[in-house]
Design brief:
This protein has 443 residues and is α+β, with helices and mostly antiparallel strands. Among the domains are: 177 residues, Porin (Beta Barrel); 118 residues, 60s Ribosomal Protein L30, Chain: A. Helix content is 16%, strand content 29%. The chain is built from 5 helices and 11 strands, in the order αββββββββααβαβαβ. The strands form 2 sheets. Strands 1-2-3-4-5-6-7-8 form an 8-stranded antiparallel β-barrel. The N terminus is likely disordered.
Length: 443
C-alpha cells in the first residue's frame, strides 16, 4: 500500500491543478492531469479483482485536427492471489477526440512499460524480470465542469509483451485535467493569446493579422484587401478622384457627384448619366431623365392627356371643350325657353327660334360638348319635380339631335326645384324657374 507521502503528493497536485483550469484546445494546447487508477489483472490463474492506487499523472500536447500526444505515469499496489506487487507504468500516448461538445469522448493508444515489483532488490529502474513492454488502447471521456475544469474518465487494455513477471491488465483512471499554455493555431509565430487573427496567418507587426496588399491596413479592416489603397478610403482607391472610393462609386472611372453615387449628370436634371436616356435634355426620373411628350402642344403631357392629338384644357384632362364665352351665349339663349307648368313640351315659334340659334352655335363650334340641366318650379312633390326637370332637359336634347347635333356631345341632368333663380311665390317667378341651363361637358 502507498504511504501518507503519496497521498499528500496527490492532494497537492489536485489543489495545484484546480486553481487555474481550462479546456484543452488550440488556445491552451498543453494538458496536465492527476487522478487515481484502478488495475484489473487479466489472464488465467490470476486474481481479477480491482486494485485502487494513486497518483496517475499525465502530460499531453494538442497538435491539431483532434489529435494530442503525451505521456502518462501511474502508481498502484496490485494483489494477485497471495502476492503483492508495487505497480508502476510509464507510457507514450496518442489521443484522438471524437467530437466537441459538452461531453468530449476520445480514443487513445500507446506504448510503454508496466512494472510489477515484488519488493526484492534488483538493479535498474525497470529490471527486465519485473517489467514488460506494453501496448495499450482505450476509450475515455472528458466532462467539463466549467470552461477551465474537466473530469476525466478512461479505461484501457494493456498487453504486456514480456509475460514472465508481468501481466496483461485493464487500467481505469478517474481524475481531473488542467490545460495551459498558449497555442499558435495559424502557425504564424504569434501566440493565440496575442494573435488578433488567430485562425489566419499574419504578421507580428500587426499582432498576427495579415495585410495581403501591403498597404499597412490589415485585411479585417481593409475594405479592399487585395488592392493597395489608402486609409482615408478604408484601404481602397478613388480612381477618378471624385472623393468616393471605388467600391462605393457606381462610375469609378468618371468624375461624378457624391449625391449620385459618383456618377455625372450632364443635363443637371438629377438623373445620373447611366440612368438617363436623354443625356442632354432635362427630364424627371420617372421618365428615365427624358421630358414628358405633349403631342398636341396644349401644355398637358401625353401621360395625363385623354386627347393626345387634340388641343384641350387642363379642366377637361387635355380634351377640347366649349369656351366660357360660348357657354354664356348658350345660356343667354336658354333663358328665353319657357315651359308650361307640369309640362316638358316645347311650343311656340319663339322657343324654336331660340333652339335653332343654339344649334347654330354648336355647329359652328364642333369641339366640346354640353350638359343640359333641367329645372322646375316648386309646384308638386320634389321627386316629381326632379323627374319633370329630366324630361325637360331630354326634350331640348332630342330637338338638338333632330337638328344634327351629335348625341355624344350632349349629357342631360335633372335638378328639380333646386337653385331657383326667381321667387316661387309669384306666377312670374315660377315661370322663370321652369328653365334649362348649359354647362361644358367634361371628361
Amino acid at each position: 500500500m502507498y504511504n501518507i507521502h503519496n497521498l499528500s503528493f496527490a492532494f497537492f497536485l489536485f489543489i495545484l491543478f484546480t486553481t487555474n483550469i481550462n479546456a484543452q484546445k488550440t488556445e491552451s494546447p498543453w494538458s496536465i492531469s492527476v487522478g487515481a487508477n484502478l488495475i484489473n489483472l487479466q489472464g488465467d490463474n490470476v486474481d481479477s479483482g480491482l486494485n485502487f492506487g494513486a497518483p496517475s499523472l499525465g502530460l499531453s500536447r494538442y497538435i491539431g485536427a483532434g489529435f494530442s500526444i503525451g505521456v502518462q505515469f501511474g502508481l498502484n499496489n496490485v494483489k494477485n492471489n497471495t502476492d503483492d506487487f508495487n505497480y508502476t507504468s510509464l507510457d507514450g500516448i496518442l489521443k484522438y477526440n471524437l467530437t466537441s461538445g459538452k461531453i468530449l469522448p476520445y480514443l487513445f493508444a500507446g506504448y510503454g512499460i508496466s512494472r510489477f515489483s515484488d519488493g526484492m532488490e534488483k538493479e535498474g529502474i525497470f529490471p527486465s524480470g519485473e517489467s514488460g513492454r506494453t501496448t495499450l488502447g482505450g476509450f475515455g471521456i472528458n466532462i467539463p465542469i466549467n470552461d477551465k475544469l474537466n473530469i476525466n474518465l478512461s479505461t484501457s487494455y494493456r498487453r504486456s509483451l514480456e509475460i514472465n513477471d508481468s501481466f496483461n491488465h485493464l487500467q481505469h483512471i478517474i481524475g481531473l485535467s488542467y490545460n495551459f499554455g498558449s497555442g499558435d493555431a495559424d502557425k504564424d509565430g504569434v501566440s493565440d493569446k496575442k494573435d488578433e487573427c488567430p485562425n489566419t496567418p499574419g504578421l507580428k507587426e500587426y499582432n498576427g493579422c495579415p495585410d495581403s496588399d501591403g498597404d499597412t491596413i490589415i485585411d479585417k479592416e481593409d475594405k479592399c484587401p487585395k488592392i493597395a489603397g489608402i486609409l482615408e478610403f478604408n484601404g481602397c482607391l478613388d480612381t477618378d478622384g471624385d472623393g468616393i472610393s471605388d467600391p462605393d462609386d457606381e462610375c469609378p472611372k468618371i468624375v461624378g457627384l457624391i449625391e449620385l453615387n459618383g456618377c455625372p449628370d450632364s443635363d443637371g436634371d438629377g438623373v445620373s448619366n447611366p440612368n438617363d436616356e436623354c443625356l442632354y435634355q432635362s427630364g424627371p426620373i420617372e421618365n428615365s431623365g427624358c421630358p414628358w411628350p405633349d403631342s398636341d402642344g396644349d401644355g398637358i403631357y401625353n401621360k395625363d392627356d385623354l386627347c393626345v392629338d387634340e388641343v384641350g384644357t387642363i379642366e377637361n384632362k387635355g380634351c377640347p371643350e366649349l369656351s366660357s364665352e360660348i357657354i354664356k351665349t348658350l345660356n343667354q339663349f336658354g333663358s328665353r325657353i319657357n315651359f308650361a307648368a307640369n309640362s316638358n313640351n316645347i311650343y311656340g315659334k319663339k322657343n324654336f327660334e331660340v333652339l335653332n340659334n343654339i344649334v347654330k352655335v354648336l355647329n359652328e363650334n364642333l369641339e366640346g360638348g354640353i350638359i343640359i340641366e333641367g329645372y322646375s318650379s316648386s309646384d308638386g312633390e320634389e321627386k316629381y319635380n326632379i323627374e319633370l326637370s329630366i324630361m325637360r332637359a331630354e326634350s331640348i336634347r332630342d330637338y338638338l339631335i333632330d337638328q344634327g347635333v351629335s348625341l355624344e356631345r350632349i349629357k342631360v341632368l335633372g335638378l328639380g326645384e333646386s337653385t331657383p333663380i326667381s321667387d316661387n311665390g309669384s306666377p312670374e317667378g315660377r315661370a322663370s324657374n321652369r328653365r334649362v341651363q348649359f354647362k361644358p361637358k367634361r371628361k
